[in-house]
Amino acid sequence: MMAQTIRVMLVDDHAIVLEGYRRLLAKQPGIEVVAEATDSRTAYQLYKELRPDVVVVDISMPGRGGIDLIGQLRAWDASARIVVFTMHQDAVYAMHAFQAGAKGYITKSSNPLLLAEAIVDVFAGRKAISPDVSQELALARLSGDASALNSLSPREFEILRLLLEASPAAEIAAALNLSPKTVANYHSLIKQKLGVRSDIELLYFGLREGLVAPPPSA
After folding, report:
1. Residue 119's closest CA among 16, 37, 27, 49?
2. Are 72 and 40 in contact (CB under 8 A)?
3. Please, is 93 exposed, middle or buried when counting C-beta atoms within 10 Å of its C-beta (0-12, 13-18, 19+)?
4. Nearest partner of 36 among 102, 89, 25, judged by Cα
5. Full DSSP string of 71-135
6. For residue range 65-111, what is the model confidence (pLDDT) as tens digits?
7. Three-class DSSP category at 198
8. In 145-167, which positions are buried (b, 16+ CB within 10 angstroms) versus exposed (e)?
9. Strand order through the sheet with 54-57
């Protein structure tokens, strides 16, 4: 039996998903959902107000995504304990999430109870990774074929994600509290680091790396 109830905040832009794992966690002894947010801005404010013990966050959200939110929370509170709960099992997403400051990474295709276990582990100071992601990370290390994406910082990776979603520079700037000029500078730097010369090449790079879904076949 746990000596302390773990206070959890859930962050996901899909209301149905929030409802699903709120119900799941409600059945777990020693875990209490104290806050929910559907965007990063609200999540940041709620974190400062409520200081939950563990934050469960998705990566892909409109505007400021989960990886950038992780960095923002950790900048405000270096002790913030964060579990990523996402559809992305690619090693590069996990590596950027951990680089930003996450302590757990669980995919939504995993056994749902793994999320509860990850919350307990991260609260106790341990790292938590779902088996499918552990395998991807191990394969990436063994292959020695490091993706150019690994050269990006978490902020650069977040901006790349938004660029590949065709978000306008002004929209990215507003979401990340940056100036349009700064976003333009990041845009150029990202292309330089990835070895691409144009936005078309950047799109093809995203397709090859699995960051962009291919168009449906006719």
Report:
1. 27
2. yes
3. buried
4. 25
5. HHHHHH-TT--EEEEES---HHHHHHHHHHT-SEEEETTS-THHHHHHHHHHHTT--EE-HHHHH
6. 899 999 999 999 999 999 999 988 888 888 889 999 999 999 998 88
7. coil
8. eebebeebbbbbbbbbbbbbeeb
9. 31-37, 6-11, 54-57, 82-86, 104-107, 128-129
**Cα–Cα distance measured from residue 144 to residue 109, given in angstroms and rounded to the nearest whole number:** 26
Residue in 74, 73, 69, 83 with CA at minimum distance from that of residue 118: 83
CA 124 to CA 161: how far, in whole Å? 32
- Upper half-sphere CA count for residue 35 (Cβ side, 13 Å): 23
- Judging by beta carbons within 10 Å of its beta carbon (0-12, 13-18, 19+), is residue 62 exposed, middle or buried? middle
pLDDT tens per residue, range 19-74: 988 999 999 999 999 999 999 999 999 999 999 999 999 998 877 889 999 999 99
At a CB cut-off of 8 Å and minimum separation 6, what does 44 contact?
Answer: 69, 72, 73, 76
Q: Which two tokens stand for residue 3?
A: 């000596």
User: What token pair was written down for 65?
Assistant: 């995504």
Band of residue 164 on the pLDDT scale cut at 50, 70, 90: confident
Mean pLDDT of 125-137: 86
